[in-house]
Specification:
Blueprint (H helix, E strand, L loop, with lengths): L5 E5 L13 H15 L3 E5 L9 E3 L14 H14 L6 E4 L16 E5 L8 H6 L4 E4 L11 E4 L18 E5 L8 H11 L3 E4 L5 H8 L8 E5 L3 H9 L1 E6 L9 H8 L4 E4 L4 H4 L6 E4 L2 H8 L7 H11 L2 H22 L6
Parallel strand pairs: 1-2, 1-4, 2-3, 4-5, 5-6, 6-7, 8-9, 8-11, 9-10, 11-12, 12-13
Helix pairs in contact: 1-11, 4-9, 7-10
Length: 349
């Protein structure tokens, strides 16, 4: 790939890129940025001012609005997105990780825009995707696609394997890492722990306070069910080191599930609901188990000892590394450049 191509990566500004704790979209945008830089691309990252990158950093928002509550989220988002598109002429491609909001700018610039769709948060936003359906889109799993959009490829999210070394021994705890929200099935993980007699450690930000109060907090006893709060990479690795298995009993189709790959990278088997992308990330019987209910999860725990730690990590190395992800995006970029050259005579640019 040509190192002369100029790429703008538009990351969200809810959190720093990469995030300190939670922030899946920022994690992926950061990983793509660093992977492209390592392969010789000329990259500018549009992100919060405290972001960390080897690319050029362009920011108009000092900190993520979730980390500094004095910042108005909508003001930050509009300033941030507009800034990137006001500089569009400086780039050969804008790679947006900003959901549907950036799509409204795409017809106002000559620079092609590639949008990675990290998930459809509600049916209401589909009107925007429908209007801009002819744009360039990438899905993060085959299962998370909307009909009629111009998808160029599926590119799986990649993680930095250096951050998640394979553990040296297995633990006995069940762990849950993710948003404390009904979608992620924390209550099902608690039920699985109760029925199996194993301790459950719950980590993550509380995104639904009512759910936490009603469905999680009553079960916290600091013995069998414990809440440890939001965790950074080091704390995640500490959890992985003592884990028997990661429970990911999602109640809606999973879009990708970075934590599934992170756990497998550390050698931790994953028990996940067979909804959405889980069957694309987890190889049933080899890196974990796909189940349909709590009873299935409890039964799967009996077979966890048969899962080899190194098999879990090997699958992540092959399919969900930064290198594999970046190579996938390089192919997509090539296709965008080709389509643009066919659509526009060179002198019109």
């Amino acid at each position: 790939m040509s190192s002369k191509k100029r790429i703008a990566i538009l990351s969200p500004v809810a959190w720093r890129t990469p995030p300190r704790q939670y922030g899946a979209w920022e994690t992926v945008a950061g990983n793509i940025t660093e992977g492209l830089v390592a392969r010789g691309w000329d990259v500018t990252l549009f992100a919060s001012g405290d972001s960390i990158t080897r690319a050029r950093l362009h920011s108009v928002v000092a900190k993520g609005y979730e980390e500094d509550r004095s910042i108005d989220p909508k003001v930050a988002e509009y300033l941030h997105i507009a800034e990137a598109f006001e500089h569009a002429a400086e780039f050969d491609l804008i790679h947006s990780h900003y959901d549907f909001m950036a799509l409204g700018y795409t017809r106002l610039v000559e620079t092609p825009v590639l949008t990675t769709i990290h998930g459809f948060s509600s049916p209401q936003i589909m009107a925007v995707y429908e209007k801009y359906r002819a744009g360039y889109f990438v899905s993060i799993s085959d299962s998370d696609r909307a009909p009629g959009l111009n998808y160029l490829a599926t590119v799986y999210n990649g993680i930095d394997l250096a951050l998640y070394p394979q553990r040296t021994s297995r633990g006995e705890d069940l762990i849950f890492i993710g948003r404390i929200h009904p979608d992620k099935g924390v209550h099902l993980a608690i039920e699985t722990a109760r029925l199996s007699g194993r301790r459950l450690l719950i980590a993550g930000i509380v995104q639904d306070a009512n759910y936490f109060r009603d469905e999680v907090q009553p079960h916290l006893d600091d013995q069998q069910v414990c809440y440890v709060g939001a965790v950074d990479v080091k704390q995640k690795n500490d959890l992985f080191a003592g884990a028997f298995a990661l429970l990911h009993l999602n109640t809606i189709p999973e879009r990708f599930g970075l934590v599934l790959a992170e756990a497998n990278a550390a050698g931790v088997p994953v028990i996940a609901m067979d909804l959405g992308s889980c069957r694309e990330v987890i190889e049933h019987g080899a890196t974990g188990f796909l189940v349909s209910d709590v009873c299935g999860a409890v039964k799967a725990l009996e077979d966890v000892p048969a899962i080899a730690d190194d098999a879990c990590r090997r699958r992540v190395q092959e399919r969900f590394s930064i290198a594999t992800m970046v190579e996938g995006y390089e192919r997509v970029y090539e296709r965008v450049f080709l389509l643009e050259s066919e659509r526009k005579p060179p002198q019109s640019r």
